[in-house]
Design a protein that fits this description.
28% strand; Ubiquitin-like (UB roll); two-stranded antiparallel ribbon; alpha+beta; 22% helix
């Protein structure tokens, strides 16, 4: 699974994407656990970041598979 990081999340992880080996589908919470283990600095952003799977926002029941693209979407402001 490819995971994309944007804006301040790139700074927190030190990269703009990472490949995760996924043997079985992961729930949203399981994916967060994997990411926090690999990138502890993401913990500071956890409450304000949304996850997306294949260009659609993920909900609590979303499952992430090995061939999915996941993205961590930070808060967006504009005017």
């Amino acid at each position: 699974m490819r995971v994309l990081f944007f804006a301040q999340l790139k700074d927190a992880t030190g990269c703009d994407s990472v490949e995760l080996a996924v043997a079985a589908p992961l729930s949203l919470e399981q994916l967060w656990a994997e990411l926090l283990e690999k990138f502890p600095a993401l913990a500071a952003h956890r409450a304000s970041v949304r996850l997306a799977r294949n260009l659609e926002y993920a909900g609590p029941q979303t499952l992430f598979n090995h061939d999915d693209e996941a993205a961590l979407i930070p808060p967006v402001s504009g005017g």
